[in-house]
C-alpha cells in the first residue's frame, strides 16, 4: 500500500524532519561502528603481537626447536600450550624455517606445514593481520624466532579468536543504539514542536494552498483599486501594490525602504507611520485627497490602506455649491415673493407708476451686479461662482463685496482650479465672518493679474488667524471651526479646503498665505503663476481646460 503523504504543511515538515533525523542517527551509528570494529581488530592484533613476542623471547622455545623433534609431548608444544592457556589465545604455533609446525592447539597438526604464508616472519618481519586458517578466522601476529647468533631459526604465530572481537562490537551495540534512540527521541520531540508551531503559524494549510494563496494575494493586491502598504516592525516598507504606488508617487519595487526615505515629511508621512492616531484620516498627497486607515499587526508591523477621495471631495464640494445655490434661490424666491406682494399692493392702491419704478429698480440692480462681475472677470465659471456666493452670503446676512481692483485681462488656463481655490477661500471667509458678531459682517474678494500670474485675495471680518497658527491652517485635517463635527451646510468640512488651496498653489509654483486684516479679521492671498493667457496672445496659444 502506498504511504499517504500528509496534506498539511506541518505534517509534511514533521515527516521530513523525522526521516532526516532517523537517517542521521543511522549514519552516525554506522560511522561509529566502523572505526570501532577497526580499533578492536587493531587491539586484537596488537595483543597477539605481544603474546608472540613474549613467546619468541622464551629461551626454552628456541632451545627445544634446535635440540628436539616436533611432537605432541615435546618441550616446544608444552611451553606453547602453557602460554596459550595463560593468555587465552586461540592458538600459539611455533614453526621452523621450513614452515613446519612444532606446536598447535590441535595435536594432529604438529609436523605439518602451516596453512598461511610464513615468508614474512621467516624473513625477519613482524606481521599483524586478520586472516583465516585451520581454526577459522582470527586476529593474528607473526614474529621471527631468533637463535643464539641472532639468526632466524623459525617463527611464532599467535591468533586471537575473531568471534571474541565481534562479540565486543555486539556488546557495544546496545549502548550505541540506546544513545541513538535517545537522540532520535529528542529530534522527534523537536520535530513535533516545530511542526506544531508551523501548524499554528500556517493555520494548518499545505504547500499547494500556500502557493495558491500567494498567487491570489498578488492578483488581489495588484488588482484592487485601493492602495495597500505593509510595513515591518522597523517601519520599513515591506509591500506596495500598484494603486498605492500610483497614489503616493512611489516605485512599485520600493520595498525595504524607510518611510522617511520614500515620502517627504508632512501629514501624509505622519499618518502612514502611525504618528497620527485615528480612523479614516484624511491626507493630501500630490493633489489627491486620500482616506487613510492603519491596522497594526501582531509582529509589530502594520498594514495601511489608502482610498482616493479626490473625486468624491470634488463631487461633495460641487454638491455643497449646488445646495448653496438652492438655498440662495430659495431665499431669492422669498425675496421675489415679497417684491411681488409690494408691486401688487401698489397696483391695488392705484399707483401703477410707483409700481413700475420699483420693478425697474429691482431688476436693474440685479442685472447690473451680475453684468458687472461678468465684465470684470471675463471667465464664466468664476463669474457664476461669485454670483452664487453673493446669494449665499446675502442669505447668511454677510455682505460679499468685489474689490475695485478685480479684473482679468485674458483667458484662464485652468478655470476649474481657480474655482476650487476661490470657492474654498470664500466658504472659509463666510464661516469666519459669521463666527464673529460685528455690526456689518463682510467678505471682500479681489481677483487680478500681474502679467500671466493670477492673484486671489479674500478678506473677512471674522476673528482672524493668530500668528502662531498661520502655517498650521494649511495643514491637512487642521480646522479653526468652533465645532468638531461638520454642520449641516458643511458636510465635508474636515480641514481639507485650505490644504487643497495650498497644494494647488504649489502645483503651479505659487504660494498661499494668510495675514491680518486692518480692523480685525484675516486676509488670504493666493498666487498662481502662468495661469493667464493675455488677450493679445490668445490667437497664438491653444485653449486649455481642466486641470493640468
TrEMBL record:
Domain Histidine kinase: from-to ranges: 418-532
InterPro entries: HATPase_C_sf, HATPase_dom, His_kinase_dom, PAS-like_dom_sf, PAS_fold, sCache_3, Sensor-like_sf, Sig_transdc_His_kin-like_C
Uppermost EC category: transferase
GO MF term set: protein histidine kinase activity
Bilayer disposition of the protein: Multi-pass membrane protein
A Pfam family assignment: PAS
Main location: membrane
UniProt-listed SMART domains: HATPase_c (SM00387)
Key words of the record: ATP-binding, Cell membrane, Kinase, Membrane, Nucleotide-binding, Phosphoprotein, Transferase, Transmembrane, Transmembrane helix, Two-component regulatory system
Family matches, as PANTHER family: SENSOR HISTIDINE KINASE TRCS, SENSOR HISTIDINE KINASE YKOH
Reactions mediated catalytically: ATP + protein L-histidine = ADP + protein N-phospho-L-histidine
Subcellular location per the Swiss-Prot or TrEMBL entry: Cell membrane
Protein name: histidine kinase
Keyword Oxidoreductase: no
Enzyme Commission number(s) of this protein: 2.7.13.3
Amino acid at each position: 500500500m502506498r504511504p499517504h503523504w500528509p496534506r498539511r504543511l506541518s505534517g509534511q515538515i514533521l515527516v521530513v524532519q523525522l526521516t532526516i533525523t532517523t537517517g542521521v542517527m543511522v549514519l552516525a551509528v554506522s560511522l561509529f561502528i566502523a572505526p570501532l570494529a577497526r580499533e578492536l581488530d587493531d587491539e586484537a592484533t596488537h595483543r597477539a603481537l605481544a603474546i608472540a613476542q613474549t613467546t619468541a623471547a622464551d629461551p626454552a622455545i628456541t632451545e627445544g626447536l634446535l635440540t628436539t623433534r616436533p611432537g605432541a609431548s615435546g618441550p616446544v608444544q608444552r611451553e606453547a600450550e602453557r602460554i596459550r592457556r595463560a593468555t587465552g589465545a586461540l592458538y600459539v604455533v611455533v614453526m621452523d624455517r621450513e614452515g613446519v609446525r612444532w606446536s598447535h592447539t590441535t595435536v594432529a597438526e604438529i609436523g605439518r606445514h602451516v596453512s598461511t604464508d610464513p615468508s614474512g616472519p621467516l624473513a625477519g618481519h613482524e606481521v599483524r593481520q586478520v586472516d583465516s586458517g585451520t581454526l577459522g578466522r582470527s586476529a593474528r601476529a607473526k614474529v621471527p624466532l631468533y637463535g643464539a647468533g641472532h639468526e632466524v631459526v623459525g617463527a611464532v604465530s599467535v591468533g586471537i579468536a575473531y568471534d571474541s572481537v565481534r562479540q565486543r562490537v555486539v556488546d557495544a551495540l546496545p549502548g550505541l543504539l540506546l544513545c541513538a534512540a535517545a537522540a532520535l527521541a529528542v529530534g522527534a520531540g523537536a520535530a513535533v514542536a516545530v511542526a506544531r508551531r508551523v501548524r499554528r503559524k500556517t493555520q494548518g494549510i499545505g504547500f499547494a494552498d500556500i502557493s495558491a494563496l500567494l498567487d491570489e494575494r498578488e492578483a488581489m493586491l495588484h488588482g484592487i483599486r485601493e492602495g495597500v502598504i505593509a510595513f515591518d516592525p522597523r517601519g520599513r516598507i515591506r509591500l506596495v501594490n500598484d494603486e498605492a504606488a500610483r497614489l503616493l508617487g512611489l516605485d512599485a519595487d520600493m520595498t525595504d525602504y524607510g518611510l522617511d526615505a520614500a515620502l517627504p515629511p508632512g501629514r501624509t508621512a505622519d499618518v502612514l507611520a502611525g504618528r497620527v492616531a485615528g480612523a479614516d484620516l484624511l491626507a493630501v498627497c500630490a493633489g489627491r485627497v486620500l482616506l487613510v486607515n492603519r491596522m497594526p499587526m501582531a509582529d509589530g508591523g502594520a498594514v495601511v490602506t489608502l482610498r482616493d477621495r479626490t473625486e468624491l471631495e470634488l463631487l461633495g464640494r460641487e454638491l455643497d455649491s449646488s445646495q448653496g445655490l438652492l438655498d440662495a434661490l430659495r431665499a431669492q424666491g422669498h425675496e421675489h415673493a415679497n417684491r411681488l406682494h409690494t408691486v401688487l399692493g401698489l397696483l391695488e392702491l392705484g399707483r401703477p407708476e410707483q409700481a413700475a419704478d420699483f420693478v425697474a429698480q429691482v431688476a436693474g440692480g440685479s442685472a447690473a451686479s451680475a453684468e458687472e462681475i461678468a465684465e470684470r472677470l471675463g471667465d464664466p465659471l468664476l463669474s457664476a461662482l461669485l454670483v452664487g456666493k453673493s446669494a449665499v452670503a446675502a442669505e447668511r446676512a454677510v455682505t460679499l463685496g468685489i474689490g475695485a481692483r478685480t479684473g482679468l485681462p485674458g483667458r484662464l488656463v485652468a478655470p476649474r482650479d481657480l474655482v476650487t481655490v476661490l470657492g474654498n477661500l470664500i466658504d472659509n471667509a463666510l464661516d469666519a465672518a459669521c463666527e464673529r458678531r460685528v455690526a456689518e459682517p463682510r467678505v471682500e474678494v479681489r481677483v487680478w493679474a500681474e502679467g500671466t500670474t493670477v492673484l486671489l485675495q479674500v478678506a473677512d471680518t471674522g476673528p482672524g488667524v493668530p500668528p502662531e497658527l498661520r502655517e498650521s491652517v494649511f495643514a491637512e485635517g487642521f480646522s479653526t471651526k468652533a465645532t468638531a463635527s461638520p454642520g449641516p451646510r458643511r458636510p465635508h468640512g474636515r480641514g481639507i479646503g485650505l490644504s487643497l488651496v495650498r497644494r494647488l498653489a504649489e502645483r503651479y509654483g505659487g504660494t498661499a498665505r494668510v495675514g491680518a486684516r486692518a480692523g480685525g479679521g484675516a486676509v488670504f492671498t493666493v498666487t498662481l503663476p502662468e495661469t493667464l493667457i493675455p488677450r493679445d496672445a490668445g490667437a497664438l496659444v491653444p485653449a486649455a481646460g481642466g486641470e493640468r
